[in-house]
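2024-03-11 09:14:02 DEBUG pipeline.ingest accepted 1 chain
2024-03-11 09:14:02 DEBUG pipeline.ingest length=127
2024-03-11 09:14:03 DEBUG pipeline.predict start
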Amino acid sequence: MEQHSPPTLNALKAASIEALQPYPHIDSSLVEEIIHQLYHTYSFEFERVPDVPQWDRPCRFQPHIKRGIDLLDNCDLGLLKRLRRGLPDDVTFDPQTVAIILYGTQDDARVMERTHQLLEKLAAETP
């Protein structure tokens, strides 16, 4: 059985954009934005390859990302951690504001439940 090396982020981006060709109403810049969010929330681990730019190195999801919800948690918590670092220590997150930032609404009970769960996870991880 032939083994394939993991894709690079650039290859993943190109394949995703190509897969969207039959759907011209979907802007390909969305693919780039999504991959950048995944990158900036440390969703990937990269193989160590000397003298090769990171986006051209084989990569895979971090080991703790096994399911879609793991990826969503990683991204959402990563974004909240980035926001937290930019705020004074005495500022607390308002759940309604977080729901709007992450999901665009505060009017859905499931969204608010998820937001509260995320804030609990964030509090548990914050010293």
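2024-03-11 09:14:41 DEBUG pipeline.report The chain has two domains: 9-61, 68-125.
2024-03-11 09:14:41 DEBUG pipeline.predict end
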